[in-house]
Fold DEP domain-containing protein 5.
Amino acid sequence: MKLMKLFTHQMNISGGGGFTQDLVISSKDIPGLKVGDVVEIYHPEDEYSRLLIQVTSLKEELQHRDALSLDQAVASTFQLRALLQVYVKAINPSDISLDLVELTFKDQYVGRSEMWRLNQNLIVFRSASSMVYLFIQMSSEMWNFDVFGDLYFERAVDGFLGDLFTRWKKEGCNHEVTIVLFSRTYYEAASIDAFPSEMRSKVTADFRGRFYEDYYRVLVHNERSDDWHKMLTQLRIAFNSYPEEVLEASHKKYGQQNVPKAYNSSASHGNFLEVLNMSLNVFEKHYMDRSLDRTGQLSVVLTPGVGIFEVSRELTSITKQRIIDCGIGSDLVCVGEQPLHAVPLLRFQNKDMLDTDDYNIPHWLNLSFYTTNKKLGYSNFVPRLRLPVSPSTKDSIRLMKSQSERIHPGCETGSLNQLFDYDAYDAQVFTLPTHVQRQNFKPVTRKESRNTSVPPEVNPEQKKSIPTRPVGLVDYLSTSHAPTLFQPRKEFGKNYDSDDTPGSRTVIGSEGSPLERQLAYRPKSRPGRALINPFDPSRVPVKHTSGRRRWIHIYPRQPDGTTLDLGFKVALDSESYKKLADYRVQLRSTKVADEPFSPALTTGVDWKSLTTPACLPITTDYFPDSASLQKDYVVSDYTISPDDVNVDDYNRKGSRRPLETSQVYREFISQRLAQGFQLIVLPALSKSSARHISVREKSADSIKKVVNPSSSFIRSLSHVDPPTKESLLSIGRIFHKITLLGSAITVTGYKPRHPYDGRKFSYIYNLRTPYIKYYQCLRTDFYTEKLQHFNWNHMDHYICTGGSPDYALTESSKYWRLRMCFLPLDYSKRFRQDPPSPSANEDRTFDGFTKFLENTVNRMRHSSKKKIHSPLERTMSTIQKGEKTTRTRVHSVRGRVEKSSFRPEGRNSPSLDLESSTSSDSLYQEKPSSEPPKKITADSPLSEVADILKCSLPFLEKFEDLLPPTTFLSYEAIHYLVEDHGLSRACAGELLQKLLSEGYIIHASGSKTVLHFVPGFHLYCFSKISSPARGKEEAIGTGMAGDYPAFEEEFVEVNYDRYFENDLCQLINCFKADDEEILIDASKKYRNDLHKLSVFKEAYIDVDVTGRSDRKEWGHLLYPSYFTPNASFVAVLKWVEATGVVIFDLVLGWVRKAQINGFLLVPMPMDPLFIGNSGRCDPFRAPLTIPMNVKVIEECLEKFPASHWLHRLWLLHDAVARRFSYIPSIFENTRRFQVQYVHATGYSFLVMPIAPEKDSTVSISNRLSYFSKVGSSNADSNFGSSDYGLPLIEKNGLRMPCGFLWVANYLLTKKWKVSQTKESQIVDENAHSKCFQDLTRFCQDETFLRDFFRL
């Protein structure tokens, strides 16, 4: 350490004089200092502001001795003042190197691919804007009192949730929160016959024969708030009404006398695993409805219990595998007192062995215990056990006799007082034999204690009285490699992966327990399971597996090598704290502790995990050894040579370009990380390079150290050149090795030889959403995904070709997607005008949509800089002037020529210079003429029409000459003929069709197969041009060379038409029409419109419009082939090779441009009404029913023949939906004749469960059991019914539901709401419920309906 004088300087980056380094110091002032060393600088009087900086260069001599100079910006940041003395000290880099860095971000979507591209492995990413599901278990303990006299509910809500919400506010968190109350209700019934017949299909029986129903009440769903404390009041209100509403729900529905008595379950017998799986059904679909302003997923279960649950073994296996594979954080917070044994503890439900206790300690749960700071006035002791109710005297005697028979069969009761060493017996039971092989386990250090062996003072006679276990039983149960005496049960043998057999699957037994009796007399009970003492779980041998090591790189390490876990409070010294805290992490990460478990250890709350959840680490450290690879895995590989695959695409024109080999290699890794894989950093390879990226250059010898080259299934590396790069990745029990060798990339996959069986668990539950006051009976499925079936060969070729249609994305590709809906801003006013004026609105809508497609989506521009006006503007101008104007050139639909928004291919490509371009301007310069242009009529010669259009239509262009120089829009051509020459739309279309048929114009792709002229946003060009200089005609070339499929991939083309009736009065008149032909024509037209609008196309999208990314990024746009102002335009943005920030910028730009052009762009769920047949829909959402007043409807229908009822009922529903500003919406997966609507504000959706065709009643999902209100008699008893609780009108054998299904748009967050736009009619935060209430009141009110029919 040396005292030196500090000077400052301004760093000159250009190098034109002055210092170019942050630190300037002389080697003479500090002997031994060299480049690369780190020095510490601070003022003597200010020791808390210290600067650590690396020496990048040394000066031989400075102007001042014992002086150094720092950059002014650096000195100012660290409060270092110039011309004052500072201490300078050389620091050993190893003493200050970082082992872990935490990066917290907010309101951003950061994918795993982006995390990896930061080139740092030791960064833990934490999100302050995650999707958080908070489940509160409303078990019977919630109404019990703790030792301080508080209800456990008060402890949970006022205590834990109050502290949690305070921390969220303090940290500035902006989580997307869902809060659900859940419980299990049991019925006192001996058989299923005790229930009403309508209820039997909805009641479930557990393994003990008890009947129950599970209830879930959603208080808030996917909401965000700056302060969640206001939610505590709502929770208190729900607490008061919850017992009655769940215990009396079935009694109110089916009758008090018909349903057995119900009671609330305890926490240990509740639906704990079910609620975790329900959240996983949502989290697994993270790539669907992708939110662009949040990252991370967290499931929190708040229970009044103590962390012990009675669960199904099958469902436990499914839950564990799903949580590990998905990399989801799951926290269990208990407000009960922590027991004196290890928790969390899962007790398995053994149907064949009711008296056997079989336990498991889940390493995939993060446990916390919340305790208050209260103290008892009379003592500092806080009991951690709840004593059971004292039994009667007879029960006590009977219990003593039962225990006596279990301990000493055949002995009298009086012999219980004899000397017996229970500790010795426990030691014998839980001690593994010394001769058992432990080659798959890490060694365990044991210390002598009173419960590990028989005390030496016990005499031989006493030892004889110790109950003995079956000889060799523990030997066979303690290791999976020991010979097996008994065949294991098939249903259990395949439910667990390698980290559950045998060590981590815990089975607890003690002297005199029922388990001991079963083992003594039924030795064939459960081979392959070890007995583990829950009061000393640190002795459990734990295997290294990929599942246990998945989160290991999220925990920091202390200098002594122990893992630091701040979730513990302990009444021991600090040394014990370190060792015991390390064991908690070892349960999740596999390292075995050296110290026995201590009851003095108490677990606190992991506030960091609950406040800023961590994302799944990018790296892990587990890879199976060569013996395991050869025995347990099947190998397969394939090689891709990007140069060979893309040989035909290197010279193609367009945005889609193939990637280079080095880019392909990195994208292979990037895509696997995005799909949940982790880079494997092996300790032997990362010891000296832990801070470097895991894509390493390695020789063949280093690879042989990882994978045994002598294995018969592994290709030998002795005869190949050393690979350039290699990476190892894993997810679950699947491992990939990606090798780059020259211009070829080899992908080697290791899949388990015995993969998991497909497991499926069907679950029936009752749900209450925030907008209703009754519970709906629904069904969902829990099952594990078969990750080994993912087609990586197909995905890798898709990446290699840069998104070629030959390797299109499929549903199994798990691509990211976002559905967006374009809604006209003025649609909500359209049916409320008197009289309506749809014509002007439709022209304005076409006008704005054309501008949006041209400038924003296709990124084209005009080749002329002349002032251009829309046809609507020209019409209005003519009317205002009261005179006809003559034009020599048509102007396009835009109101002004905007600066080009397209970017030429390549970051350094020069932009297209219109001033020097001669492709179109030199050939088509407008000549001054004193004569007005000729009028075009239907009989005008085609050559004359073509010449007039050449001189009048504006032309479009795009980079790389992808369009011919005379490209024009069909929409503008038709408008020009209509507005400037007085032709009708039909006549203009026929005239342009003749030009196409005669070859005067062709499609802009140059393809001769396009034979029809389509009005709308379609691109055409003139096939020949007249050159006055040469006096002859020349053919115009095209950039796409006649490749129409390539053109469709590059450009978004949409047909324009006026589908769907937009006059509300006309709809009512069709409903009341006596003429059958009018009714049939209306239905037929609607069916034809649905058919046309259900055709979708897909185009390639260059998503990096601003050039922010350092790699090639692209996506695809799935869009309808037709656009009409009377229906929403729904498009889906799909991507796999794109950064979250880039997609956010793209979508945000589209939202702004859409608003400028008169549209509201809102997100839409991929399954808006949650009616998919997969059983994996969001289980906490369901469409709500809006029944119609059947009495009024039947009165109106009685006037007409019964054969017309279905058509008229459909017209009625359509008119009501339009009356409340609901717009027809056609999705890419819409079923035949299924009619869905979206509100003009995007706030909600509707579906009509009927269709405009006989026998076409829409069948939704068998997920919906019934939707009728509590107490209604219209409840169906079968899954998959089509009435959904709606009232029915039955006529001529038809059952016609009367009403709607409604759901709110939960994706419409505050950032999407353009409330500043007056025309958008966006209302307050209660718009969801207000919209639902208004429509419900209208459909059920007789006066409203009768007045509506008289329109």
